Amino acid sequence: MKIKNPTLGSDIEFFIKTVTGEPFPAIGIVGGSKENPKPLGQKYFIQEDNVAVEFNIPVAKSPGQFYSFVQRGFHKCVAALPPTFQPFVVASCEFKPQLLANPQAREFGCEPDINAYTRKINPRPRAKNENLRSCGGHVHIGWDNPDMETRFELIKACDVFVSLPSIWEDTDKKRRELYGKAGAMRIKPYGVEHRVLSNYWINYGHQTEAVAERYWQAIDFINRGLVVDAKDEEQIIEAINSSNAKLAKTLNNKYYNLYAA
Predict the structure, then answer these.
(1) Positive or negative CA dihedral for 133, 48, 199, 181?
(2) Which sequence spans correspond to the domains of the chain?
(3) Spatial CB neighbours of 7, under 8 Å, sequence gap ≥ 6
(4) Looking at the domain that runs over 7-95+113-120+129-260, which CATH code has it been given?
């Protein structure tokens, strides 16, 4: 179970706001769609996703390259915004009901994701607040000839090294009630998509850099022949899904010490 020639990619969402600070739907503002994303040059693309802006980056072959690509992609998106709008990078926010009248504002991703622990499809989330919208910062990991077992074990390792730190770094709990549950993933031909994180890590350069390094640690963890102990899985799920920062730190420290030994 080796991950050879690993790569990192990402699709990241963020909101926009008016110059007065009011969240505003990106519908009709930036263009592009999932079926036909708008090119920004240098293999960067932008699109509208529900009320948010989404962009993707080129495939990165190292944490440093991933960091550079994310920063460059975000700056390209900001430059593409009309001068009357600014980026609004939060994991979730409420919109005024009248701003959600467009049918696109009611469309949500239809492709389900999988729980790496149960290996079953996650149920579609249902929001209690119809005016709440959220943003993800999903990371894609590719490698040579991926097999199913490695996919699942890698996502568990990503939860340990990446998702657990996000519990004390990302203070927004509303998104986590709907999206970003422990083990959330999609199987890709090139590997996996880890779907736990919000967009919190693009706010500051040091967080982007830290997240990139953590994904690389998760990959190295698997390459060393290590796996997440099945006895810890229930607690990992509990720490992530209930936003239990104390438990998250305890578990993260345990596996980081194991990795660093």
Answers:
(1) positive
(2) 7-95+113-120+129-260
(3) 59, 60, 61, 141, 142, 143, 190
(4) 3.30.590
Q: What is the C-alpha separation between 68 and 237, in angstroms, rounded?
A: 31
| C-alpha to C-alpha distance for 1 and 146, rounded to whole angstroms | 9
Residue 29 identity (one-letter amino acid): I
Q: Which two tokens stand for residue 171?
A: 């203070």
Regions of the chain where pLDDT drops below 50: none
Q: How far is CA 228 from the centre of its chain?
A: 21
Q: Does the predicted TM-score (pTM) go above 0.85?
A: yes
Residue in this structure with the two tokens 């422990």, named with its chain if needed: 182
Token digits for 147? 């097999």
User: Tokens 């990503």 appear where?
Assistant: 158
Number of other residues whose CB lies within 10 A of the CB of residue 211: 27
pLDDT the model gives residue 148: 97
pLDDT number for residue 184: 98
Among 122, 104, 105, CA closest to 113: 122
* pLDDT value at residue 110: 62
